[in-house]
Specification:
The structure holds 2 protein chains of 2 kinds. Chain A is of the alpha+beta class. Chain A is about 25% helix and about 35% strand. In chain A, α3 packs across α4 (about 130-145), α3 runs parallel beside α5 (about 160-170) and α4 crosses α5. Chain A is globular, with a radius of gyration of 25 Å. By secondary structure, chain B is mainly alpha-helical. Chain B has a single domain (about 80-300), classed as Orthogonal Bundle (MetI-like fold). Chain B is built from 14 helices and 2 strands; from the N terminus they run αββααααααααααααα. A two-stranded antiparallel sheet of chain B has the order 1-2. The longest helix of chain B has about 35 residues, at about 5-35. Chain B is globular. The two termini of chain B are about 40 Å apart. The chains are: A alpha+beta, B mainly alpha. Chains A and B meet through β6 and α3 of A and α9 and α10 of B.
């Protein structure tokens, strides 16, 4: 059908790769997909485009519908509404074994009665590849995930990390157009998880494959994905790059879900050129940069990330000319939480509110550290603030 | 005094209980039967000789031991009647077990895939027939299968047959009876393994390109083999020795070994031959049991 179009290596060799998208077209297009279980609307009208070669993360709290959406992509659930187009072809009703999509399952779902080799070869045998071809591909996969020498082991003779590798190799062996990863690192301990994150990213870049990962761990999503879709109650709340998601969250809920944040409820609003002066309940009047999109009439709040809040003993006096633009809040240190690389201070403001400041411990000796009940000035620029609607 | 000691004694006693049970109610009676099988029939009370009389002194006991012989076992091997009975028992047991597996597997699979609360209901439905006496249920089948019974009435009413079919006293009736009676013993172990199996494994197989029938043969069935083994043994062993069902439902032209035993024991009053037949049956049944045991051990070793 689409013969002369450029293809990535992975797609060209994929099992049943007959529908690879034209350049610039999305590989996967989800259009108004919805799924209801009984009276519970698990996925509620999700539309999303995934480009070829992307590392996309679906992020959300448990029960937000991200796993259901992933299961619809794999074919384990059929959507009640909407279309799922893979390379322009609607696959919404196709059975799992008919899709050029593979999945890495949360607890790996390795076949306990088959050896590592047979687990990896399972999908290749189903594709009726020649024996020699299967053997080379299995060897390739084993080398790729560094499992040499373990081919004859059964899954229960492997460590958690090794099992995770087998699951990955098994899912990659068919060279799918799209790899789905359902909480792939949740079962690993922290150190191993961090190493594996790096390996997965490296692998994805090298193979040029398209990955969609489902996770509830925002750090994991931020680290690995090039784009993140945050889900809440069956809907996509925001789709953005990790940086945009963190620095320009679209709603108060997203701001609170992704990372830590200080929030101040707005009580009044005044326009001052390109700035807004917002009266807040906890921190008095704050000067903030005007948001790109005009703020609506709803309840507003001012948000600022803890690491954007600077502390000083007497306020920012050195940089003349900036004073007028600064938000200075006087207060006393109410709580100190030492985290190694950073220290989080909670400052009780004279205006009644509380603000959290995360300060990098850039010197080994604690000459710069603040002590409890010390008077400090917490300050930040208008550009560091985000105005959010709830 | 350490706390461990206090608890160790009753625990050790409890661990011995099954052995005591086996010795008292299996090994000792087995010794009696073995001794009788080596004796000769006699018109006496008990109807065999020699009789061990511990009060008669050492010489008498020695003479009694000398009188034991394996003649009865020779008879079992040389007489067609017994050989045929064994062969028929094994054939019937094979065929019936195969039928049971064929019927029981889909039922067990269906049960395991039901929503959780319906699984309990299905379980009760499988077990409920046990609340009625086994014998009454077999008599009910006689009623259903007889000349003017329920089955023939239905077949006639539906115009599937023009005149009543002879069901009773046929092998078909016997197989119906056996399959009906033993189905729960096949379903329950199968259900137990299938319910334990993670459905995500089947999803993984289909995700990797296996159509439904391959998912079944490559994943579901191999993983349910322990249940298959247990169900097959639980049915096969008692069916080989089955007496009531063939006696009530099958014809009288060829007998199973259980019926032959009964004949020898009660009609011919030949306790020694009956005992020998029972011992041979036990040995024959040990073969599949040992095979299964070895298979399980191998699976365990592989799993490690």
């Amino acid at each position: 059908m689409t013969d002369e179009l450029p293809r990535t290596d992975a797609a060209a060799n994929a099992v049943g790769a007959d529908a690879y998208p034209a350049a610039g077209q999305p590989l996967l297009r989800i259009e108004g997909v919805a799924k209801t279980f009984g009276t519970f609307r698990a996925v509620d009208g999700v539309s999303l485009d995934i480009k070829a070669g992307e590392f996309f993360a679906l992020l959300g709290p448990s029960g937000c519908g991200k796993t259901t959406l992933l299961r619809m992509l794999a074919g384990f659930e059929a959507p009640d509404e909407g279309r799922i187009l893979l390379g322009g072809k609607d696959i919404a009703q196709a059975l799992p074994h008919e899709r050029p999509i593979n999945m890495m399952f949360q607890n790996y779902a390795l076949f306990p009665h088959l050896s590592v080799r047979d687990n990896i070869a399972f999908g290749l045998k189903r594709a009726r590849l020649a024996r020699a071809e299967i053997a080379t591909r299995v060897a390739e996969m084993v080398a790729l995930v560094k499992l040499e020498g373990l081919e004859k082991r059964k899954p229960d003779q492997l460590s958690g990390g090794q099992r995770q590798r087998v699951a990955l190799a098994r899912a990659l062996a068919r060279r799918p157009q799209l790899l789905l990863l359902d909480e792939p690192l949740a079962a690993l301990d922290k150190k191993l998880r961090e190493n594996t994150q790096g390996e997965l990213m490296e692998l994805q870049r090298r193979l040029g494959m398209t990955f969609i990962i489902v996770t509830h761990d925002q750090e994991e999503a931020m680290t690995m994905a090039s784009r993140i879709g945050v889900m809440k109650a069956g809907k996509l709340a925001q789709v953005a790059s990790p940086r945009e998601l963190y620095e320009a969250p679209r709603s108060r809920w997203i701001a609170e879900f992704v990372g830590d944040i200080n929030l101040f409820e707005a009580e009044s609003k005044l326009r001052d050129g390109h700035r807004l002066i917002i009266g807040t309940s906890g921190a008095g009047a704050l000067v903030v940069a005007e948001p790109r999109e005009p703020v609506g009439a709803g309840k507003l709040s001012v948000a600022i990330r803890p690491e954007k809040v600077k502390l000083s003993r007497r306020g920012p006096v050195s940089e003349a000319g900036h004073e007028t633009a600064l938000n200075r809040l006087d207060g006393v240190i109410a709580d100190i939480c030492y985290l190694g690389g950073t220290t989080t201070y909670k400052v009780k403001l004279d205006t009644g509110g509380m603000v959290q400041a995360s300060v990098a411990n850039s010197a080994r000796l604690d000459v710069d550290a603040y002590s409890l009940n010390q008077h400090v000035v917490a300050w930040f620029t208008p550009d560091d603030c985000v105005v959010l609607t709830s | 005094m350490s706390g461990r000691r206090i608890f160790a004694r009753p625990a050790r006693f409890a661990a011995m209980a099954p052995y005591v049970w086996m010795v008292l109610f299996f090994l000792v009676p087995f010794g009696f039967v073995l001794k009788i099988s080596l004796s000769q029939t006699a018109i006496a009370q008990p109807p065999y000789e020699p009789v061990f009389d511990l009060t008669a002194g050492w010489e008498a006991l020695k003479a009694a031991f000398a009188a034991l012989s394996i003649d009865n076992f020779r008879l079992l091997v040389s007489d067609d009647l017994y050989v045929f009975a064994y062969v028929r028992s094994l054939t019937v047991a094979f065929a019936a077990t195969a039928l049971l597996l064929l019927i029981g597997y889909p039922i067990a699979y269906g049960m395991a895939r039901l929503p959780k609360r319906w699984q309990a209901v299905a379980m009760v439905l499988v077990i409920v027939p046990f609340w009625t006496s086994f014998l009454i249920r077999i008599y009910a089948w006689i009623n259903i299968l007889q000349h003017d019974g329920l089955l023939n009435q239905i077949l006639l009413a539906l115009h599937l047959v023009s005149q009543p079919v002879v069901w009773l006293s046929t092998d078909t009736a016997m197989y119906i009876g056996i399959v009906y009676s033993y189905l729960p013993f096949m379903i329950l172990p199968l259900y137990a393994t299938l319910a334990k199996m993670e459905p995500v494994l089947e999803e993984a197989a289909s995700d990797l390109g296996a159509p439904p029938w391959q998912v079944f043969w490559l994943i579901t069935f191999p993983l349910s083999l322990p249940g298959v083994g247990a169900g097959v043994l639980l049915c096969f062993i008692p069916i080989v020795g089955e007496f009531v069902i063939p006696d009530l439902l099958a014809g009288s032209n060829s007998l199973m070994i259980g019926q032959t035993l009964w004949l020898e024991f009660f009609t011919n009053k030949d306790w020694p031959v009956a005992s020998a037949a029972a011992i041979v049956l036990l040995v024959v049944l040990l073969v599949p049991l040992l095979l299964y045991e070895r298979l399980q051990k191998r699976q365990l070793e592989q799993g490690r």
